[in-house]
Design brief:
The protein is an alpha/beta fold. Helix content is about 40%, strand content about 20%.
């Protein structure tokens, strides 16, 4: 990562979320802590943006780990093997048919995403290598 933000947030983060208010909020949160961000509203758009933007981390709204979220994860993982893929779930009690790891994600966060939790998770995942 070439840029270091407060609380460990740094680099390029792609936010994949079909709710424009939610993607704007998460994107602004990341920017406030030093990250450069882009957003996408679908798997197809995420793949296009990721190819040009080359994010270090990708936050994907998984709302019950639907097929669209899994498709986005697969497309991004195949194009950017080193990017960190983080599933963002609606609530902690949510039960998914597929686990985030089985769908190709490195980790999961729960809404509302807090900057410190995101920064800590990114630092932990980066340390794993």
């Amino acid at each position: 990562m070439s840029r270091k933000g407060r609380n460990g947030l740094s680099g390029r983060i792609l936010v994949v979320e079909d709710n424009t208010r939610a993607d704007a909020a998460l994107s602004v949160l990341c920017q406030l802590y030093g990250a450069e961000t882009r957003t996408a509203a679908s798997a197809a758009e995420a793949a296009r943006v990721a190819a040009d933007f080359r994010p270090d981390a990708v936050l994907v709204d998984v709302s019950a780990l639907n097929a669209e979220a899994c498709k986005a994860a697969r497309r991004i993982r195949s194009a950017l093997q080193d990017a960190l893929l983080i599933a963002v779930s609606e609530w902690k009690g949510q039960r998914d048919a597929t686990s985030p790891a089985a769908a190709g994600f490195d980790a999961r966060l729960f809404k509302p995403v807090e900057a410190d939790a995101l920064a800590s998770l990114l630092d932990e995942l980066r340390a794993r290598g």
